[in-house]
Design goal:
Layout lengths: L1 H26 L7 H13 L9 E4 L8 E4 L5 E4 L1 H6 L2 H15 L21 H4 L3 H10 L2
Parallel strand pairs: 1-3
Antiparallel strand pairs: 2-3
The protein binds zinc ion.
Length: 145
Amino acid sequence: MRYAVFMRLGLAIILFFTLIPLLVACGKATDNEFVPYLELFRKEATARGVSIGAHVEIAFETTIYGGYAQCLGGGLQRIVVSEYWWSLLSALEREALLFHELGHCALAREHVADGTFSLMTRVAPGADKYGPRRSEYLDELFGGQ
Ligand SMILES: [Zn+2]
C-alpha cells in the first residue's frame, strides 16, 4: 500500500517536472504582442488566395547584430524581434517589419534588389511609402514568389 502511494507520488512529480516546462515553452512560442500581426498576415494571404502552411513563431529576443528583427533560418520558422527597436516603431512600421520577416519565414521569399517596389528589399519601406500603397505592397508580397 505504501509502495503504491509512493509510486503515484513519484509519477506525479515526474509529470509535474516534464509537463510544466513544456507548457511554459508552448505559451511563450509567440509573444501576445505579435498575435494580431500573425492573424492579419494570414487574413491578407487568404484574401489573395495564398494559404500559409508554415507555423511561424514570433518572440522578443536578442537579435543577431542588433537588428530590428530576423527570421531564423534552418527550418526553425521563428522570428526574433528586438524589443528596443519595436518600441520605437509606429504601428505601420511594425507591420511592414513583421510582414517582411514573414515573407522570409512563411513565404520562403528572399531579398529583392534595392529600389524594387517590394517589402522584400533589405531595408523595408518606411511608413511614408508603405502606408499609402499598402495594398499594392501586399499584392506584391503574396504574389511575387
Ligand atoms: Zn530580410
